[in-house]
Amino acid sequence: MELGSVLDFLQDKSILITGATGFLAKILLEKILRVQPNVKKVYLLLRAQDAKSATHRFQNEIIGKDLFILLKEKLGANFSTFLSEKLTLVPGDISLEDLGLEDSILKEEIYNQTDVIVNLAANTNFDERYDLSLGLNTLGANYVINFAKKCGKLKVLVHVSTAYVCGEGEGLILEKPYHMGQSLNGVAGLDIDIEVKIVRDKLSELQQLGATQDEIKMAMKNLGLSRAKLYGWPNTYVFTKAMGEMLVEQLKGNLSVVILRPAIVTSTFKEPFPGWSEGVRTIDSLALAYGKGKLTCFLGDLNAIVDVIPADMVVNAMLVAIVAHANQSNYDSIYHVGSSVRKPVIYSDLQEFGFRHFTAKPWINKDGKAVKVGKVTVFGDMNSFRRFMFVRYLLMLKGLELANTALCQYFQGTYLDLKRKIQIVTRLVDLYKPYLFFKGVFDDMNTEKLRIAAREGEVETDLFYFDPKVINWNDYFLNIHLPCVAKYIFK
């Protein structure tokens, strides 16, 4: 594998990015425009009905973010002109044939001009409706591959998945493909066409029964969870992403395709500046709850590895992989981008970082008082957690139920509220348990080969760094990531 300059490769290239309003997509766009202003064109596919709504989403969800502050400072008064020259907004939907493009002239332009496609469109909600996740994460991959085959100049397609398509894997998890119909537990019969039919039939049945929108939503969520668990995946998200990979592998033909599997993506390490993130992401919700004094107990193995990787490193790995695989379909093309092998972090590290940060910089509540955080009670297995839930909440719920009966439903509101909260906690524990006790590490041999090739080639490694070994986790979490997360407490 011989690698040339990433900057030289990007010059005069046209790139189509799907899922353009997503976290990684925005960082990718900013990086390209900032380091290689001579890129020819970036097509941004946004889920939108028309050009007007696409423009609205672009202004509010992409370019209005402080992520682009360095680019704005660099270009000054030329910023808007530069964007109008380099960017084309594409209203569409990857869960539809031809990505939902209705403008035939624009569609032909993209077919004729596109050199690189980066598929970043995804629904990352663990507990999403099955019909929505299947449409975007699975069938979307199919439509992107079909679209790519119509792009005459295409050099490489990058399909961004997740390392957790492995489900509840243990030990060293290899960078290997998933083949059509393959399940994680050996159960035969996984067929994507059948999954689509099951969804359609269930929706039709619910509509005939006159189900409400809330009832349909919950039924679709439960269907996704049950279908995922049938074949060995813990939730709808990773199940539908795994099926998406199966379609990519089956349909790619002679296309040069890269499958990138990031682990848990966190705020930026260095670029465009340290600590940029957006919203509350995965493990950050735990940090926020802890900082507010609302997280007093935790379920999980404190010695388990939590595989985190800064977002700018994921984007850099993506760009280097694009150069490595342009017009090449004979190299290993699955890359785990994470830290569990080269620079592991464990949950007890995160616990310590959180305690130190929020002790030094406590949250001030609405009464003007600093919230004092303490050490969290940790349940190391499900049995101890269930005992805690029984003593703390379920006995109280049973008492309320009896009192309700005796006092003509006087406590009905309190009873239903507590019951709902217990059901929510139980569902969240069920969804996140596989990751709180995760016993796998993600082999990154292919990614290491890519790093070596970058160092030995002409890649600008100061700009396109993606080796987690350079990260000091203590410094990163205390001085970069947790201060970034804490900003969302004060909003």
Structure in words:
The protein has 491 residues and is an alpha/beta fold. It has helices at 6-10, 23-35, 51-63, 69-75, 79-86, 104-113, 130-148, 192-208, 213-230, 236-251, 284-291, 311-325, 347-360, 382-406, 412-436, 445-456, 473-486; strands at 14-18, 41-47, 87-92, 116-119, 156-160, 170-173, 257-262, 264-266, 297-299, 308-310, 334-337, 377-379, 439-442. It contains 17 helices and 13 strands. A 7-stranded parallel sheet has the order 3-2-1-4-5-7-11, sandwiched between helices. Helix 7 (130-148) crosses helix 8 (192-208) and helix 13 (347-360) crosses helix 17. It is globular and about 65 Å long.
The helix fraction, in percent, is: 40-55%
Unreliable runs, pLDDT <50, ≥5 residues? none
Strand order of the largest sheet: 3-2-1-4-5-7-11
Write down the Rg: 24 Å
The number of strands is 13
H/I helix tally: 17
| Mean pLDDT reading | 90
Residue fraction in strands: 5-15%
First-residue to last-residue Cα separation: 47 Å
Provide the structure class: alpha/beta
The H/E string reads: HEHEHHHEHEHEEHHHEEHEEHEHEHHEHH
Shape: globular
Task: Set down the secondary structure blueprint.
Elements: H1 6-10, E1 14-18, H2 23-35, E2 41-47, H3 51-63, H4 69-75, H5 79-86, E3 87-92, H6 104-113, E4 116-119, H7 130-148, E5 156-160, E6 170-173, H8 192-208, H9 213-230, H10 236-251, E7 257-262, E8 264-266, H11 284-291, E9 297-299, E10 308-310, H12 311-325, E11 334-337, H13 347-360, E12 377-379, H14 382-406, H15 412-436, E13 439-442, H16 445-456, H17 473-486
Parallel strand pairs: 1-2, 1-4, 2-3, 4-5, 5-7, 6-13, 7-11, 8-10, 9-12
